[in-house]
Specification:
289 residues; alpha/beta; 10 helices; globular; binds pterin-6-yl-methyl-monophosphate
């Protein structure tokens, strides 16, 4: 079996550094995520898929128990815990490096105790006031995504005069809050949060201007995988391209981001992203032809 970059690394206190763009594989243990909702709700199926992602080359398998698709209602903490904990425990026992996708400190801490090495918080600490101090206390790595409000009404918040300047300033606030809570900046990743309180045009503008976000001095991870703006780009007479038909476009974005040195990408299709990253490593930029 081909193995991911962090075999048997059950606990790290610094960020994974594979020496190339990192690949975070998506494992949604939910009934309602936009692309894979319901596919991996049963623990056994979720664990099997997590092992597959790892075998394909995921450096981290990102386990989430609450859908954040636009319009989604929140799951209760007990439901979220019951979905993710058994899966994380089994993946960690099998030597998989795991991150937990949660906005709740309680879930994050249970996951870290079970061996998760990174807390992926799509709210950047805004949804739960206990999150930043808890992560600091646990010494876990932390990813702060740009977020403006709960998924149920986040698209009403997709209003910007200058999306790049505002997302950068709002993420700068989250970086300051994380540092003030005691999170080590060496363990802190930021993410522009494509599709979270953003239209397709906002997503493209942010992707074109990631250099502005990079000025915050933190590693950047981007989650473009199968998102609606790719469905819009690839739409035809039949309507939006369905989520599973968006992997080639996702991979094209990964190649371009990897060539520009991005820290990480979050994806459903791990092997394709690893392949794109391998190509970008030998062809980082081409002369005009
Ligand atoms: N997107 C989703 C969920 N979690 N986490 C990060 N860090 N960045 C993202 O863009 C992100 C995320 C929603 O997509 P999914 O349903 O495919 O998980």
């Amino acid at each position: 079996m081909a193995l991911g970059g962090f075999v048997r690394l059950s606990r790290v206190n610094s960020l994974p550094q594979p020496g190339r763009t990192l690949v975070m594989g998506i494992l949604n243990v939910t009934p309602d995520s936009f692309s894979d909702g319901g596919e991996f709700l049963a623990t056994d199926r979720a664990v099997a898929h997590g092992l597959d992602l790892f075998a394909e080359g995921a450096d981290l398998v990102d386990v989430g128990g609450e859908s954040t698709r636009p319009g989604a209602e929140r799951a209760g903490a007990d439901v979220e815990l019951a979905r993710v904990l058994p899966v994380i425990e089994r993946l960690v026992a099998d030597g998989v490096a795991v991150s937990v996708d949660t906005m709740r400190a309680e879930v994050a801490m249970a996951a870290v105790r079970a061996g998760a090495v990174l807390v992926n918080d799509v709210s950047g600490g805004l949804a739960d006031p206990d999150m930043l101090p808890a992560v600091a206390d646990a010494g876990a790595a932390y990813l702060a995504m740009h977020w403006r409000g709960p998924s149920a009404h986040m698209q009403d918040l997709a209003v910007y005069d200058d999306v790049v300047a505002e997302v950068t300033a709002e993420l700068a606030d989250r970086v300051s809050a994380a540092r003030a809570a005691g999170i080590d900046p060496d363990r802190l990743v930021i993410d522009p949060g494509l599709g979270f309180a953003k239209t397709g045009e906002h997503n493209w503008t942010l992707l074109r201007n990631l250099d502005q976000l990079a000025r915050l001095g933190q590693p950047i991870l981007v989650g473009a995988s199968r998102k609606r703006f790719l469905g819009e780009l690839l739409a035809d007479q039949a309507g939006l391209r369905p989520p599973k038909g968006r992997d080639a476009a996702t991979t094209a974005i990964t190649a371009l981001l990897a060539a520009s040195g991005i820290w990480g990408v979050r994806t459903h299709a791990v092997q394709a992203q690893r392949d794109a990253i391998a190509v970008a490593a030998v062809l980082p930029a081409l002369p005009p032809g």
